[in-house]
Amino acid sequence: MLRSKGYKIGPDAKQTPDYYPAQEIELQVQSADGYDLKQEEFVNIQGERKVVFAAGQLYGQDAKRGLGGDLLEFYGRVWKVVKRIESWEQSGWCKVLVVAQLDTVMDTTDRILDDDPRE
């Protein structure tokens, strides 16, 4: 998990996301069902979405605090937290909606090979 620190301003005056050092957390990943998608009705996002139960508190983008959304890596991809659906702070768990980022797939088992007979 990479927790968002907000943004840095580079020498070229461009904003770039900034994160605290990576740390491992326990995750349970599920497909996003209709109820979970309805919960994010005001978030206009496209792409592959999953629901994640995480041992820790994760946060989506928060413009007021200047944070850009935490990042998770699983299934060989990077996923951005777009919304915190539920939180059980006493137990340390939360439920979040994540969307896959357009990045390089790191786990080759997730790729479809060029000679895939399904094509």
Description of the structure:
The chain has 119 residues and is mainly beta. It contains 1 helix and 9 strands. The chain has one helix at 34-39, and strands at residues 4-9, 15-19, 27-31, 49-55, 61-62, 67-68, 71-74, 77-88, 93-100. Strands 3-4-9-8-7 form a 5-stranded antiparallel β-sheet. The longest helix is centred in the N-terminal third of the chain and has 6 residues, at 34-39. The termini are far apart. The relative contact order is 0.21.
Determine the number of helices (DSSP H or I, runs of at least 4 residues): 1
- Unreliable runs: 105-119
User: What structural category characterises the helix and strand content?
Assistant: mainly beta
- Amount of beta strand: 35-45%
Can you summarize the main beta sheet?
A: 5 strands, antiparallel
What is the string of helix and strand elements?
EEEHEEEEEE
Overall 3D form: globular
Q: Calculate the mean pLDDT score and round it.
A: 80
Provide the helix percentage: under 10%
Structural Rg: 16 Å
Give me the side-by-side strand order of the main sheet.
3-4-9-8-7
Please report the distance between the alpha carbons of the first and last residues. Answer: 34 Å
Number of strands: 9
